[in-house]
UniProtKB/TrEMBL annotation:
This is Transcriptional regulator, Spx/MgsR family. It comes from the Bacteria. InterPro entries: Arsenate_reductase-like, Thioredoxin-like_sf, Tscrpt_reg_Spx/MgsR. Pfam families: ArsC.
Length: 115
């Protein structure tokens, strides 16, 4: 079973969930807004992807940070602290599947990895 992490009202997450539902793929959903994220979870993901890929620097949450706050994100430890405090800054969705981790929505990648 897939485990999907994200925010329900995020358009990218909606696309991913629609894809999974339409392709009859079983998943559980973890809502960052309601359930947050732990440092342990972030460290687990960082064993599979670089910490920088988890930080969504294109989103409004990142853009709202002060320059000092942005400059303080220099490694996994500082990034995780910021991501725990600002879960909407995590690249979404994060999908855990049997062979690894997928970040974001890319139909071609889903077709390749989730079938």
């Amino acid at each position: 079973m897939l485990h999907v992490y994200g925010i329900k009202n995020c358009n990218t997450v909606k696309k991913a969930l629609d894809y999974l539902t339409n392709h009859k793929l079983d998943y559980t959903f973890h809502d960052f807004k309601k359930e947050g994220v732990s440092d342990e979870q972030l460290k687990k993901w960082e064993k599979q992807v670089d910490w920088e890929k988890l930080v969504n620097k294109k989103g409004t949450t990142w853009k709202k940070l002060t320059d000092e706050e942005k400059e303080a994100v220099t490694d996994a430890v500082s990034a995780n602290k910021t991501l725990i405090a600002n879960t909407s800054m995590i690249k979404r969705p994060v999908i855990e599947y049997t062979s690894g981790l997928i970040l974001g929505f890319d139909e071609d990648e889903y077709n390749l990895k989730l079938k």
